[in-house]
């Protein structure tokens, strides 16, 4: 299972900002450090701002900062904002009526994966990341 590029970028942006959540980040610094195009970053930041995760500060000294504590921003809420969780909670083959009573051929394989994914993404916040890892963005 793979997240969409847009969800990956949103998680990348917010996890980068969550390393030092008290700071304000300029669009230029996010673009340069995360290697995301200007247009793509601004579209994602608009969605994250509308969702109330970040706030946009206008002007020369402007940028983005968290609008709520990182401990209140779950991974599933980020993905839901960007693309919706249905892609990850529904049938692996895309059938609308797939269920335990009416399973598709992938149902038994997909259910444990889906449950694990949902548990990880619903139960974890940006505050739960291990920032001691010296990862280079």
What brief labels describe this structure?
mainly alpha, 137 residues, elongated, 6 helices, two-stranded antiparallel sheet, Arc Repressor Mutant, subunit A
How does this structure look, described?
It contains six helices and two strands; from the N terminus they run H-H-H-E-E-H-H-H. The protein is mostly helical and 137 residues long. The chain has one domain (5-128): Winged helix-like DNA-binding domain superfamily/Winged helix DNA-binding domain (Arc Repressor Mutant, subunit A, Orthogonal Bundle). The protein has a two-stranded antiparallel ribbon with strand order 1-2. Helix 1 crosses helix 4. The two termini are 22 Å apart. The mean pLDDT is 92.
Helix residue percentage: 40-55%
Overall pLDDT confidence: 92
Whole-angstrom Rg: 17 Å
In the CATH scheme, the class would be Mainly Alpha
- Helix/strand class: mainly alpha
Q: How are helices and strands ordered from N to C?
A: HHHEEHHH
Tell me how many strands there are: 2
Number of domain units: 1
């Amino acid at each position: 299972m793979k997240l969409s590029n847009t969800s990956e970028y949103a998680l990348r942006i917010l996890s980068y900002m969550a390393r030092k959540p008290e700071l304000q980040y300029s669009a230029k610094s996010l673009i340069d450090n995360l290697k995301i195009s200007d247009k793509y970053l601004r579209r994602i930041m608009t969605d994250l701002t509308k969702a109330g995760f970040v706030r946009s500060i206008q002007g020369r000294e402007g940028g983005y900062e968290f609008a709520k504590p990182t401990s209140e921003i779950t991974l599933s809420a980020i993905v839901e904002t960007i693309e919706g969780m249905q892609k990850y909670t529904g049938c692996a083959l895309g059938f609308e009526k797939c269920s335990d009573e009416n399973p598709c051929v992938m149902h038994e394989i997909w259910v444990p994966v889906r449950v694990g994914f949902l548990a990880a993404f619903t139960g974890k916040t940006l505050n739960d990341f291990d920032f001691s890892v010296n990862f280079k963005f």
